[in-house]
Amino acid sequence: MPSSSSKSIRRFALPGFPHPRLARCAGGGLAWAAGAAQAHGFGQRFDLPLPLWLWLTGAGTTIVLTFVALALFARQRDFGQAFLRSTDLLRFAPVHRVAHPLAVGLRTITCVLFALSLATGFFGNPDAYANLIVTMVWVLWWVGMAFFCALVGDLWEIVNPLPALYRAVVHLLGCRESLGWRYPVRLGAWPAVALFFAFAWAELVWPEKDVPRSLAIALLAYAALSWAGMLLFGVDAWCRHGDAFAMAFRVLGRFAPLELRGSTRTEPARLRLRPYGAGLLAAETVPASVAAFVLLMLATVTFDGFHETPLMDRIGTAAQTARPVAETLFALSSATGLDETQWLNTAVLLLFPLGFVLIFRLAGAWMLRLAGRTRDSTTVNAMVWSLVPIAVAYHLAHYASLLLTTGQFIVPLASDPFGWGWDLFGTRGRKVDLGIVSPAVYWYTAVTLIVAGHVLAVVVAHIEATRRFESHRAALASQVPMLVLMVAYTSLSLWIMAQPIVG
Questions:
Q1: Helix ranges restricted to H, 371-438
Q2: At what angle do helices 212-233 and 93-123 cross, to 10 degrees?
Q3: Cα dihedral 145/463/73/61 (nearest 10)
């Protein structure tokens, strides 16, 4: 709570984990401590050494000073060209020899893990954390794979089991890969946008997200939908436009130092080393649907932090006391399996990406006006790549503690994935240290990541502006709205991180 000299943070967050109970591992198995009031918590109190407003001011000032430094010392139009240099690693014979067998081996492992996760979900112990699928899907795959794709390279492009299994069946049956339908250009990436929103809703609202059988059904349904898209339009077309996770990991992978691309019918495999963020400066046109997808990613991870703050708790209380809203929520609850809180969370979750898109469009219109242009959606859409470092930084800050703490459960679950009492590798009784990340370390890491991400976003936006506007003055003027947007979002991110968790 605010005080004269500090901001007190209680039960500092383990954000994003879908289960409402704090877990602990003891003895020969997994025992789960109840207490929804302590959800996602460290169970510790941490006092910021300075008032929160000073942290926000310092972070905002750092971003503004970055902009000023770029304005003074990065005036050339070719600024950032060195940023675009890359090294083709496949031209080295040892790398070339190892790359393909390694990719095949990793892809085989992910296919086995995919099948094992489905099997444990359908046939394993119904207890969420005595069953592999919950930890595998929400922690190791979604959080862990996202971390790897952002920090190393888009590994999902190589190991995605869905196209591998589909092509294996096609080869076994000896039939054509697809029916040959041309993917509709007007659809763009909108199927991936819709599917990613559905995924975010499942992660943050769906009451059965930690029920193994329900999670297995959802996983199989997504696989079936993907295979249907591949059958209609081909594997490459569906993964490029319709697969929400292929697109999400591809967006994060643009930030990474390794450019990883599997071979297609028209392009060879690629393995290139480049500076962090260089992949965000690609010259291709950015469709509105892809821009919307990036904003959706940013909005949903922001909502993940926001919906457990005291402000969201007060919004829920206000909604219950406002008669028209309360009656609507009650009617929706009566007609469905969701309660009033889940419907309210659904509505707010929908408002977040809509608000992000609206704010980005307004900032884009302001940007063009200051730069002396009237309409240029291509330039506005291209600026969305400058937000990816922010998305990466916030994702890392938001989920790092989750991966380091709850990710430890994979060790005992590896010996007993079905929850049947097995001890295959002698790790079933391995204890988990949920206090491995202290609140202080979490806070300082979050501040560092968020500020660094926004600083890099300012650099990327400046390079992009110098490439797209004729004069240095126009490029600088165009960046004022982006600067305001980034300072505001930095403040919002740190404010969310500093809030106590309420349930």
A1: 377-382, 388-405, 410-415
A2: 130
A3: -50
Angle at 137 between CA 134 and CA 138, to 5 degrees: 80
The span from the CA of 421 to the CA of 59, in Å, is 50
Cβ-based neighbours of 496, under 8 Å, separated by 6 or more: 302, 305, 306, 309
Answering whether pTM is above 0.85, one says yes
| Residue pair 303/15 in contact by the 8 Å Cβ criterion | no
* CA pair distance 281, 78, nearest whole angstrom: 13
Positive or negative, the CA dihedral 239, 241, 246, 249 is: positive
d(CA 389, CA 456): 6
Residue 450 identity (one-letter amino acid) = I
**Which of left, alpha, beta for 322 (phi over 0: left; psi -120 to 50: alpha)?**
beta
Q: Which secondary structure element, helix H or strand E, spans residue 238, and what is its range? A: helix 235-241
- Amino acid symbol at 86: S
| Collapsed DSSP state (helix, strand, coil) of residue 2 | strand
Token pair of 297 as six digits: 């990613």
The tens digit of pLDDT for each residue in 145-187 reads: 999 999 999 999 999 999 999 999 999 998 888 898 999 999 9
Query: Do residues 25 and 430 make contact, with C-beta atoms less than 8 angstroms apart?
Result: yes
Measured CA to CA, the distance from residue 417 to residue 410 in angstroms comes to 9
Which tens digit of pLDDT belongs to each residue from 390-448?
A: 989 888 888 888 888 888 999 999 999 999 999 999 988 888 787 787 778 888 888 88
Nearest-angstrom CA–CA distance, 43 and 20: 14
Distance between CA 124 and CA 422 in Å, rounded? 12
Angle between helices 288-306 and 244-253 (to 10 degrees): 90
Q: Based on C-alpha coordinates, what's the Rg of the chain? A: 23
Return all residues near 366 (Cβ < 8 A) that are at least 6 apart.
480, 481
Strands 45-47 and 8-10: antiparallel
Let me know: does 46 contact 445? Beta carbons within 8 Å.
no
Cβ atoms < 10 Å from Cβ of 221 = 10
Could you please report the per-residue DSSP string of 292-360? HHHHHHHHHHHHHHHTTSHHHHHHHHHHHHSHHHHHHHHHHHHHSS--HHHHHHHHHHHHHHHHHHHHH
Dist. CA 67–CA 70, nearest whole Å: 5
Contact in structure between 345 and 205 (CB atoms under 8 Å): yes
- Please say whether the beta carbons of 318 and 310 come within 8 A: no
Q: Are strands 87-88 and 22-26 parallel, antiparallel or unpaired?
A: unpaired
Structure tokens given for 66: 């970055």
Name the token pair of 192: 């991936």
End-to-end CA distance of the chain: 16
Which of 486, 482, 501 lies closest to 439 in space, CA to CA? 501
Residue whose tokens read 């968790």: 501
